From TrEMBL:
Alphabetized PANTHER family for the sequence: CHLORIDE CHANNEL PROTEIN CLC-E (PTHR43427), CHLORIDE TRANSPORTER (PTHR43427:SF12)
TM region(s), chain numbering: 23-52, 64-83, 157-182, 194-217, 237-256, 277-297, 365-384, 396-417
Protein name: Voltage-gated chloride channel family protein
Chief subcellular location: membrane
Membrane topology: Multi-pass membrane protein
Protein's organism: Flammeovirga agarivorans
SUPFAM superfamilies for the chain: Clc chloride channel
InterPro entries found in the cross-reference section: Cl-channel_core, ClC, ClC-type_chloride_channel
Coiled coil: none
Protein's cellular compartments: Membrane
Gene3D superfamilies from the UniProt entry: Clc chloride channel
Keywords recorded for this protein, A-Z: Membrane, Transmembrane, Transmembrane helix
Length: 471
């Protein structure tokens, strides 16, 4: 482990004899780096959130812009095709660089994804913001690899701090952001050697975003689970939590599979990348018109509840029982938007999907609507990202400690039931979720389908040979 180019072996002997001295150097190093990474990422996130707020407000007053979705799609697709092919993998590229370091992440990842995400929301696409902030943080962080002459070991930690900073700052959840950075790249494991850098950087980033955002009039949305509605944790309520968690996990799996389905479909059918979001944008615009057929072409009165971030719907789901199809519609519009090549995160749409599903489930599960909405908010996210600890902490930070046990049970159950699927195909299976999946340990999620297809073929061939021998 190097500190500004000096390895442990190069330190004086008297320094090595003091057990805590290397720790002091380690802390000083990551305080310096974490302050820079967290500060820059936090400022970037604040500016991004301001731009996102502007785009959402402007679109709300000029809803005719949805008819320009194909044009917006072409601009985004062309930018990435001609300027951003080296960063087109997005979040998966960050995870790849942690597990299989190859080259410094180009800094242009940050401005490209920021502008493309704001454009996606401006034109009316359905996407989130987490992916953008995480990519921004990862790209900014990795630039310090050469500046501080970090080795491969420290570079992995550096990228983790960037991920933590991006997540923390965009949602205002520093503890969840820190754990997310430690947990996201390998399923079932955490990088404890990065625990101090991740937490320190996440806290700095959140601080920077809060203060810069305040200057621009930007703040994080507050969600409420009233303490008085939270029931006692009885055996019955525990089982109801597990039942809800099953639904959240399966929904997270559905979202992940839908995301990859649309992405693979567009890639297989349209060879010219800039054309994919053009076709996708046209389909989305037509779909919006169909959903609002009662208004004809009176676009000013169109209901766009399934597009954009959908924060107002998320807030409403804590007090109002939602329709059964709301979470399905958001799953469709978001997976299609991102699969077509528009840019943005998946996490805020997952909040929407989870909170509306939880709200609907309150008609069948005897738990308060606000509690179920909160459980779904983080539960579906847990299932779709395989980060149950980060999601549990996020629930505690957003909703308060009184709901912690309910949140934890929902997140862990959702994680178990989502299987080896994720919105991040570059995640590695560090600890298989179920018995009988040991052969998938160490594989990325994108490799698992190949493994399972080979196993299926082997079984079919074995059965065929056995049948032939019997005859």
């Amino acid at each position: 482990m190097a500190f500004l180019g000096y390895t442990h072996e190069q330190l004086p002997k008297w320094v090595k004899k003091v057990e805590q001295f290397p720790v002091v150097l380690y802390i000083l190093k990551w305080v310096l780096i974490g302050t820079l990474v967290g500060g820059l990422t936090g400022i970037g996130s604040a500016l991004f959130l301001w731009g996102l707020h502007w785009a959402t407000e402007w679109r709300g007053g000029h809803q005719w812009i949805i008819f320009a979705l194909p044009a917006g799609g072409f601009l985004i697709g062309a930018c990435y095709h001609y300027l951003g092919q080296s960063v087109v993998k997005g979040n998966n590229q960050l995870l790849d660089e942690i597990t299989k370091p190859n080259r410094i992440i180009p800094l242009k990842m940050a401005p490209l994804v920021t502008v493309a995400t704001i454009a996606t929301h401006l034109f009316g696409g359905s996407a989130g913001r987490e992916g953008t902030a995480v990519q921004m943080g990862g790209a900014i962080a990795d630039q310090f690899t050469k500046i501080f002459k970090l080795d491969k070991y420290d570079r992995k930690i550096l990228i983790i701090t960037g991920i933590a900073a991006g997540f923390s700052s965009v949602f205002g959840t520093p503890l969840a952001g820190a754990i997310f950075g430690l947990e996201v790249y390998i399923i079932g494991r955490m990088r404890y050697e990065a625990i101090f850098p991740s937490f320190f950087t996440a806290i700095v980033a959140n601080y920077a975003t809060h203060h810069v955002g305040h200057y621009f009039g930007i703040s994080h949305t507050e969600y409420l689970i009233p303490t008085e509605v939270i029931p006692e944790m009885t055996l019955e309520n525990l089982l109801l939590c597990v039942l809800a968690g099953v639904a959240f996990g399966l929904t997270g799996m559905l979202f992940s599979k839908a995301n990859h389905f649309w992405g693979n479909l567009f890639k297989s059918k349209i060879s010219y990348p800039p054309l994919r979001p053009v076709i996708g944008g046209l389909v989305l615009a037509i779909f919006i018109v169909i959903l609002n057929f009662n208004h004809g072409f009176d676009y000013a009165n169109y209901d766009l509840k399934y597009f954009g971030l959908g924060v107002p719907v998320i807030v409403d789901s804590f007090t109002t029982q939602m329709d059964w199809y709301d979470f399905l519609m958001k799953t469709l519009t978001t997976s299609f938007t991102l699969g077509a090549g528009f840019k943005g995160g998946e996490v805020t749409p997952l909040f929407y999907i989870g909170s509306t599903l939880g709200s609907f489930l309150s008609t069948h599960i005897s738990l308060p609507v606000a509690l179920l909405a909160g459980m779904g908010f983080v539960g579906v996210f847990s299932g779709a990202t395989n980060t149950p600890m980060a999601c549990t902490m996020m629930g505690i930070e957003l909703f308060g400690a009184p709901s912690a046990v309910f949140i934890a049970v929902a997140c862990i159950t959702a994680y178990m039931f989502s299987g080896h699927t994720s919105i991040y195909n570059s995640q590695i299976v560090g600890s298989p979720k179920h018995v009988g999946q040991d052969n998938e340990k160490g594989s990325t999620l994108s490799e698992i389908d190949v493994i399972r297809a080979a196993e299926k073929k082997h079984i079919e061939q074995h059965d065929k040979d056995k049948k032939d021998n019997d005859e």
